[in-house]
Amino acid sequence: MSTLHSLALVRDDLMPGRNWIDGQWRDAASARRLEVSDPATDAVFATVPDSGAADAQAAVDAAHAAFPAWRAVPAKQRAQLLKRWNALILQHQEDLGRLVSREQGKPLAEGRGEVAYAASYVEWFAEEAVRGGGEVISPPVAGRRMLALKEPVGVVAAITPWNFPAAMIARKIAPALAAGCTVVCKPAEDTPLTSLALVRLAQEAGVPAGVLNIVTASRERTPEVVDVWLADARVRKITFTGSTPVGKHLAREAAGTLKKLSLELGGNAPFIVFEDADLEAAVEGLMAAKFRNGGQTCVCPNRVFVQQAVHDRFVALLADRVEVLQVGPATDAASQIGPMINARAVDKIDRHVQDALSRGARVVVGGQRLPALGLNYYAPTVMVDADATMACSCEETFGPVVPVTRFTTEAEVVAAANDTPFGLAAYFFSTDVQRIWRIADALETGIVGINEGALAAEAAPFGGVKESGYGREGSQHGLEDYQHVKYVCQGGLGQPAG
Ligand code: SIN
Questions:
Q1: Given a cut of 70, is residue 276 above it in pLDDT?
Q2: If 152 and its partner were Cys, which of 181, 220, 365, 398 is the partner (CB 3.0–4.6 Å)?
């Protein structure tokens, strides 16, 4: 019999159920509410405001008013505040992990893990805050002092996704606050609760009124909120994680006031196994990269290429691992793969599998919905004989499906890996040192994993190229994305003494 986890919170006030604007918990001006459901059962278990234009406007007004005082706070004090926030997040890891798992569906071990991952960004940017001041430049002529000062860009609008309800908001808000920016945030409609809980803890850590503002909204009303922020010239930056079509829309609309943008968009990651790879390590790497969050990450391998000589052995090893994965709700301690976020997600996964089968792919493991568990479950799946014509090779599946394609030569697989408009992550396994650097150089992505499937880290720059977007999150580059450079030159200082 399996052990059951409780997803009830110790601290009920971590579900405030209201927007946080200008240091106050507020309902939407319209009083409308948005229902939040558990993807494991589709049962509604909470409501939050379904905000509109008036709420979005109030949030920007507050963030704009708070900016001059916040940017003037010494970086060391901003860092101390972020450290307090980090400590509170870790202190409430269990409650936050339960909330993540309840609204997003991932197994509780992953929910807790995501909270630690979120906190790692807050800690990292607390430490970076004091190192983001700028440079002194050697002047090319005498009698001058020249400086490149780093300044906060101003009010930042953060629009966050549902797949990592804690980590994505943390890695946007922490660098913004560290840099001295103020923030308006709209979390994903499916997973607003974790964001509100994190903001509650930020309030307890002492983030001043107006510095951080959050409004929740339904899918239907989100454009109303975001349009206010896009049109308002006081919003100087948009940071967004989500789909490429929405990212393009934001880029077009933000052009009206030339806002700075960070866009972390869709991926179509290749995972390549060369014949000289350590196959056990490659399977391990694929399991870690592919099945994290049930395959619902932008960096999940979407296309798996295996060289002819090792194809059958690799597939057999992989199938052995995939067929024993436990699928179930976060309340079941044995679950390794949770429900997908909603029925639309499952429909897309099934469409990709059916399309692949109709074009000649063959299922080795899984390949079906799991209605006995609920409407949002899909079986971990391995398919072979996938090719570039299939939807699963061209679009992000965002689910627990591994389509395997056989290849012969290095040149052929590099061309296939790069044959996509996307360029977020790529992975490959090889033990040939010369090949390793050839392939790492040839792959057109912002992130490359060599003999490693778990790449995420607060110290690393996360982001893509091509239609996967631009900007970087994490690392020192993640702070720079919230700053601009002001060149200051003082002349007339005369010749050096002597
Ligand atoms: C994402 O899926 O957008 C983020 C994944 C990560 O942080 O590793």
A1: yes
A2: 181
